[in-house]
């Protein structure tokens, strides 16, 4: 039989969630056990909410891993070439893309540099001018 929640129940669930979501798991369990002695059904609901946003649920972890695998499948690896440049290593990853260390590999001249690849779909018409400005600023730098 399903439990019908009242408006007061939803308010209490919100309060319990807010009070417990950032606690370490061992403290959270004890807190919820004590706070919900009279309503274990609310504890169950709060725990489910925490799992859904906390990243420790199996489905969420599987989806994130699959998305990263798909994303990584299309990214270059050390030894791969982009035009005349050979990737030597990944320097860093961020919200907009990946930065690689590379070198000129066609024997025209020697130069070590960084290549930034923007994540698929992120280089929108609005972001393109920002990316070009960043490119020019970085092109003017001489840094190891």
Task: Summarize the SSE layout with pairings.
Layout (H helix, E strand, L loop, with lengths): L6 H14 L4 H11 L4 H15 L3 H16 L7 E2 L2 E9 L3 E8 L7 E7 L9 H12 L5
Antiparallel strand pairs: 1-2, 2-3, 3-4
Give a structural overview:
The chain starts with 6 loop residues before the first helix and ends in a 5-residue tail after the last helix. The chain has helices at 7-20, 25-35, 40-54, 58-73, 128-139, and strands at residues 81-82, 85-93, 97-104, 112-118. The chain has 5 helices and 4 strands; from the N terminus they run ααααββββα. The protein has 2 domains: 7-63, no CATH class; 75-139, Phosphorylase Kinase, domain 1 (2-Layer Sandwich), CATH 3.30.200. The longest helix is centred in the middle third of the chain and has 16 residues, at 58-73. α1 packs across α3. Strands 1-2-3-4 form a 4-stranded antiparallel beta sheet, with no helix packed on it. The mean pLDDT is 81. A hairpin with a 3-residue loop joins β2 (85-93) and β3. It is 47% helix and 18% strand. It is α+β, with helices and mostly antiparallel strands and 144 residues long.
Summarize the structure.
The chain has helices at 7-20, 25-35, 40-54, 58-73, 128-139; strands spanning 81-82, 85-93, 97-104, 112-118.
């Amino acid at each position: 039989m399903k439990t019908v929640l009242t408006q007061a129940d939803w308010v209490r669930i919100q309060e319990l969630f807010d009070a417990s979501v950032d606690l370490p798991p061992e403290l959270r369990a004890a807190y919820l056990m004590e706070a919900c002695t009279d309503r274990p059904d609310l504890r169950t609901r709060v725990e489910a909410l925490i799992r859904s946003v906390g990243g420790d649920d199996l489905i969420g972890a599987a989806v994130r891993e699959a998305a990263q695998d798909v994303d990584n499948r299309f990214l270059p690896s050390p030894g791969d070439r982009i035009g005349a440049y050979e990737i030597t290593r990944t320097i860093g990853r961020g919200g907009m893309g990946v930065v690689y260390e590379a070198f000129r590999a066609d024997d025209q001249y020697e130069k070590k540099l960084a290549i930034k690849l923007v994540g698929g779909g992120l280089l929108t018409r609005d972001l393109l001018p920002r990316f070009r400005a960043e490119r020019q600023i970085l092109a003017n730098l001489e840094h190891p």
